[in-house]
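Thread title: Can someone regenerate the structure for this chain?

I was given the following input by a collaborator and told the matching structure tokens would be attached. They weren't. Posting the sequence so someone can regenerate them.
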Amino acid sequence: MKYIELSVDLKEVDPWRDILVAELAETGFESFVETNSGFLGYIQESLYQKAMLETLTQNENVAACSIKTIEEQNWNAEWEKNFDPVFVENKLAIIAPFHERPSGFEQVITIMPKMSFGTGHHQTTWLVSQALFELRLTGKNILDMGTGTGILAILAEKLGAASVFAPDIDEWSYLNALENCETNNCKNITVVQGGDEVLPGKIFHIILANINKNVLIKHFSVYSSSLHSGGLLLISGFFETDQADLVREAASHGLVFDKINTREGWAIIHLRKP
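Best answer:
Regenerated them for you:
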């Protein structure tokens, strides 16, 4: 499988990097790497359309943009070159096998960075990770929808979850999550390849959905029907300015707003099922 690497240089990095990354994520781009002047984005060659580049060149905040084809076998080297450890306060350290294991953290997760979303660098993964430390997960059944690298599923198990169901529609993410669960000696995580079709008959105490606004709105009915009464749905992957739209749509599916936390313009919303 070949991927297209999109390189974007911006006249003003903030807030335009986050805005454009969010927009591209909704068009099929799977992973992003921040650079000093902008970012790199990656999409499967079969999904790439010339119109994506043309749209960017018309944006007055884009200084330059270009594409090149990345062979599959080069991907790990690209990630290792750009992957730095991630720290969530003094609670969590997310490292790769080629990093030294840090001390002074409640939990340390080791992942092999490959072509899957959720390495911990994005603000939304950071927000959901932080939120998990504030919850009582002991004995709970968790759904990590769109698990990506499996970081959130792994953290949920480490914090006491009885079981974690971790589906992802992308084969790269599925295989990477399997590898990362094994690396972290996880025993209670079930990683599967698939989407909504793998959920019927399963009910969870807590659902994690770190995806994007459009996907969340489309699937609130599925999330609601998959929650125990009194269960909690944590959604992220969107800007804090999207709060009203998401809370309104969630309410139409019987989900009640609890609270919102933000980080550099990105947000996580806690919703409950009465």
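Residues 3-79 form a domain with the Alpha-Beta Plaits fold (CATH 3.30.70.920).
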